[in-house]
Design brief:
Helix content is about 50%, strand content about 15%. With about 325 residues, it is of the alpha+beta class. It has three domains: about 60 residues, no CATH class; about 140 residues, Endonuclease, Chain A; about 60 residues, Arc Repressor Mutant, subunit A. α9 packs across α11 and α10 crosses α11. The termini are far apart.
Length: about 325
């Protein structure tokens, strides 16, 4: 027997095997069975269902096949995860109610801010609000909203939006320039029928949805697993005002697309990059703000440098300032 096998057994979860338990289980698989006495020091094997009493000898234990044991342990793990998720939901519901109570006691009015937890609950709440909308929906969709989600996510949003348009509503959406030719975006506007418009900018804010100028939804966490449902009139007015200002600065995309001109060999994308370069942003920052990957950003920077005749990063900043290309914006 090894020192590990003789070591006192310590309590542990089913997501791991103690050294003594792993050793005895391996032995049981090799020999076909072990004695009850052998397993006394490793009760975890019986507790986790990896050893079971022999049908023909009560003093012996038979090993369960590893594939069966793994399935049992994975099922136990899934059940623990499900229990934790239900616990999180209960906590969220409990504290949401407490926040609403606190708001009511402080203002005498129903809460105008509500935390939504979980993407399914967020989508369901937005869907419920959209189902009774009659006027207008304003949305801002950054590049990340169309990178990664399963196509069914866009299909559900498309059906929801078309229902509003069929009721005579209006939809205005702001995207980043990098989404002008995204397949999911192009497909959306090929299918939608009604009063729907879209425009693009180099940079936009985080995701925003404003419905009928009465309720808005904004992210409350970086991974968008939390959202804020906003019904405060002052905040709604602020969101609408911000949207309108960005809308007037944006380039039309649908129903009539307008393309910004290239000036002296400098494209609109390169002018946007130039503006961020002279502010001192890194390649990674530029890529993140303009909704592209770093490699693409560096390709644009290299083309910009070649057009202006720059041989270094420092010289590029100087030539951008001297060229006057940013003076032509807006």
């Amino acid at each position: 027997m090894t020192a590990e096998a003789n070591a006192p057994h310590t309590e542990h979860g089913p997501d791991e095997l103690c050294p003594a338990g792993a050793l005895l289980y391996r032995r049981a698989l090799g020999e076909g069975r072990v004695t009850v006495t052998d397993a006394t020091a490793t009760p975890c094997l019986v507790d986790f269902g990896l050893l079971q009493p022999s049908l023909d000898d009560p003093d012996r234990l038979d090993p369960v096949a590893p594939v069966v044991g793994l399935h049992r342990l994975l099922r136990m793990s899934q059940e623990r995860i499900a229990d934790e998720r239900r616990r999180e939901e209960r906590l969220t519901e409990t504290f949401t109610a407490l926040m609403r109570t606190a708001s009511q006691s402080a203002t005498g009015e129903a809460s105008t801010l509500r935390v939504l937890s979980g993407k399914e609950r967020i989508d369901r709440t937005i869907g419920d609000v959209m189902a009774v909308a009659t006027d207008q929906v304003l949305t801002i969709q950054p590049h990340s909203t169309h990178v990664g989600p399963h196509p069914r996510v866009h299909e559900a949003a498309l059906a929801r939006d078309q229902a509003l348009l069929d009721r005579g509503g209006r939809i205005r959406t702001l995207y980043q320039h990098t989404l002008r030719h995204a397949p999911t975006v192009l497909a959306r506007y090929e299918l939608l029928r009604g009063d729907v418009e879209a425009r693009t900018l180099d940079e936009v804010t985080e995701r925003l949805i404003v419905v009928d100028r009465t309720v808005a939804f904004i992210p409350a966490s970086a991974d968008r697993s939390l959202a804020l449902e906003v019904r405060h009139p002052a905040l709604i007015a602020y969101f609408v005002n911000t949207f309108d200002r960005l809308w007037h600065l944006a380039t039309p995309m649908h129903p009539q697309a307008v393309h910004q001109p290239t000036l002296n060999g400098i494209t609109p994308r390169q002018r946007a990059i130039a503006a961020l370069l002279i502010e001192g942003h890194t390649d990674s920052d530029i890529a993140d703000r303009l909704g592209m990957n770093v490699r693409t950003a560096r390709v644009h920077i290299a083309k910009l440098a070649a057009t202006l005749g720059s041989e270094s990063r420092a010289q590029l900043g100087y030539l951008i300032g001297q060229s006057g290309i940013l003076d032509r914006e807006g």
